[in-house]
Design a protein that fits this description.
The structure holds two protein chains of two kinds. By secondary structure, chain A is mainly alpha-helical. Chain A has one domain: Up-down Bundle (Formate dehydrogenase/DMSO reductase fold). Chain A is globular and about 70 Å long. Chain A contains 15 helices and no strands. By secondary structure, chain B is of the alpha+beta class. Chain B folds into two domains: 233 residues, 2-Layer Sandwich (Alpha-Beta Plaits), CATH 3.30.70; 28 residues. Chain B has nine helices and ten strands. The longest helix of chain B has 24 residues. Chain B is globular. The termini of chain B are far apart. The chains are: A mainly alpha, B alpha+beta.
Chain lengths: 330, 279
């Protein structure tokens, strides 16, 4: 018996072939769901923050006043500390963690994953060495280790560390975008967005540690300006990202991830700290330091919310048949 | 020293190139018997995927994956044509396309994914560390990582090997060998393409106006991922078979993406120099 099309639709629990949301095969996804878990966005967040802190500290070392240099050097410690859990997180996410060294088996910068592994392997020792050299310089690190740390060529470590750090901060967004997951791949700006967010959170981390150490207002002002500049860049990138993504961004902008994205990443992590920094300029001394600390903490938390929500919403997006077809005809 | 490094890292000299091998899957001949699925599972010793019933025609396989390297689709089409009902049942045995420019291979950070001497794409199981990057990179949703802690080659990436082990011994891949209607044809890619064009001509003559080839060098679907070494004769638009119209190769837009990222980074460094320098 041939059923007519309208009644056959009622008898099928799922939309019949050709009548899925995207006009494809039932409602089956076109691409596979990413297998990565929480370790990946956490690593992107810490690695980006480490890079931002290192670059901020290096800029202060080379262009700042004596006070700027003294206070911002804490960024080298922040970078070293934030990098420490990065490699373990990346290894934990592997399907076969005992083979982590296969990442460095070949040099293949065409693969963002390979580029990232080499960058992390290069940046981590440089950041640790630069932090150790600063510790030795102010007498925190003594003995033979201190003597060794004093041998570190600081200028070279700062220059090479900045290049590698910026690569580390920028490749993570490009890595997600170099896939066929609609939410990650549709816009060309995810790499720029993650870069801006990494620099905002990194400079915020420098501000935060500076505020705990009785930083002079002039230096705090400069750090806050740098953080705000990165936040403006982040808002610009974010706007461009959402516009370019269009309907594809729905798993991020509505539904389960709307709250962490809008309230966490956008409102609480970018707009609020930006405004708070502007407000803090009116005060001075202790009140200014505490307002700046709160703003910096919000920026840092917002960077995690941004990565986590885009990462998790990407898994939902992978099941979006219509978005996949739209991506393939761009 | 280089030799020691190569031995340590499992870097071997590749074997000499042979003629490119592939599949021509002619969906107009498929009867949906799933012999290919079974033969593939049996030869490659892939575990069963459970007994879920999808309710979508006879397709209870669902999707290609780590332990499913052939997947027969059942597309039931019913439409009103004037006062008559027209019903058509399309079947298609899906498989890894062994792209000329394979997104999975380019994404792979360890070199586990290689191009073999038969011009096919293959995952070296002793190299793959399960980073998972190939999974979202594939525009066809073919390759997948076996769950950590599972029974079957846990934690590494898997897909159709085009029966690399059988090819080494001059044998036909298990799915093509078992296909009772010659819907799956195996051979030299050049020869298969000639055969496919001829077959398309025959079908067009018979009035199959929507028939088309998918994955030929001249097709628009080859614009980014290149010609497919496992290509298809379809009886409807690619979309009907869940195939993207123009499968994307992530590499093509990567420079632009890095460019935006670098622009933000360099801009920040310049602003930083100004902010700290202006005293």
């Amino acid at each position: 018996m041939i059923r007519n099309p309208s009644s056959s639709r009622e008898n099928f629990p799922a939309p019949p072939a050709g009548e899925g949301q995207g006009g494809g095969y039932y409602d089956y996804p076109v691409v596979r769901r990413p297998v990565w878990t929480w370790e990946v966005p956490t690593y992107f967040w810490l690695g980006g923050m480490a890079a931002g802190a290192y670059v901020t500290a290096s800029l202060a070392q080379n262009f700042g006043s004596d006070e700027d240099r003294r206070v911002a050097a804490g960024g080298f410690y922040v970078a070293a500390a934030a990098l420490a859990p990065c490699a373990p997180l990346l290894i934990a996410d592997l399907g076969r963690p005992e083979r982590f060294h296969h990442m460095l088996r070949v040099f293949k910068p065409l693969s963002p994953m390979n580029l990232g592994a080499w960058t992390l392997a290069g940046f981590t020792p440089i950041a640790v060495a630069r932090a150790a050299s600063h510790a030795a310089g102010i007498g925190l690190l003594r003995g033979p280790l201190g003597a060794l740390a004093r041998l570190v060529p600081t200028r070279l470590a700062e220059l090479s560390g900045c290049v590698l750090g910026l690569t580390l901060a920028g490749y993570s967004g490009v890595l997600l975008a170099a896939t066929n997951i609609p939410l990650w791949a549709k816009s060309k700006l995810l790499g720029g967005l993650f870069m801006a967010s990494a620099l905002a959170s990194g400079s915020a981390a420098v501000t935060l540690q500076a505020a705990q150490r009785g930083v002079p207002d002039a230096t705090l002002h400069r750090l806050a300006m740098l953080e705000s500049a990165a936040s403006i860049g982040e808002m610009a990138m974010l706007t461009g990202y959402l516009v370019q993504s269009g309907k594809t961004a729905r798993p991020l902008t509505s539904g389960r991830f709307a709250a962490p994205f809008w309230l966490g990443a956008v409102g609480g992590g970018t707009l609020f700290p930006f405004l708070l920094h502007q407000f803090a300029r009116r005060g001075n001394g202790r009140s200014r330091r505490s307002l700046s600390s709160v703003a910096a903490m919000c920026t840092i938390a917002g960077a995690l919310a941004l990565r986590w929500s885009i990462f998790e919403a990407g898994k939902v997006s992978s099941e979006d048949q219509a978005a996949s077809f739209e991506l393939s005809t761009d | 020293m280089i030799d020691t490094y190569k031995r340590l890292m499992n870097l071997e000299e590749p074997p000499p190139a042979k003629k490119a091998k592939g599949f021509f899957t002619d969906t107009s001949l498929c009867i949906g018997c799933k012999a290919c699925e079974v033969a593939c599972k049996q030869w490659n010793q892939l575990p069963a995927d459970g007994f879920a019933i999808t309710g979508n025609s006879y397709d209870n396989t669902g999707h290609l994956g780590a332990t499913t390297w052939r997947h027969v689709q059942f597309i039931e089409q019913a439409k009103a044509n004037g006062t008559r009902q027209e019903q058509r049942w399309l079947m298609m045995s899906d498989v890894c396309k062994h792209c000329a420019n394979a997104a999975c291979l380019e994404a792979c950070p360890t070199g586990a994914l290689i191009r073999t001497e038969f011009d096919t794409v293959y995952v070296q199981q002793d190299i793959c560390n399960g980073c998972g990057f190939c999974v979202p990179a594939c525009p066809f949703g073919v390759i997948d990582r076996a769950p950590k802690g599972g029974q079957f080659e846990a934690g590494t990436a898997h897909k159709c090997t085009l029966c690399y082990d059988r090819l080494k011994d001059d044998m036909t891949p298990a799915c093509a060998k078992s296909c009772p209607t010659a819907s799956i044809q195996f051979g030299d890619v050049d020869e298969l393409r000639t055969r496919a064009r001829q077959r398309l001509g025959e079908l067009k003559e018979r009035g199959e106006s929507k028939a088309r080839l998918y994955g030929m060098p001249e097709g628009e679907e080859a614009a980014e991922v290149g010609p497919l070494h496992a290509f298809f004769l379809l009886l409807d638009e690619p979309k009907a078979y869940n195939l993207p119209e123009v499968p994307r190769l992530p590499r093509k837009t990567m420079a632009e993406r890095y460019g935006w990222s670098a622009a933000v980074g360099v801009g920040f460094a310049l602003i930083g120099a100004l902010v700290f320098g202006r005293r």
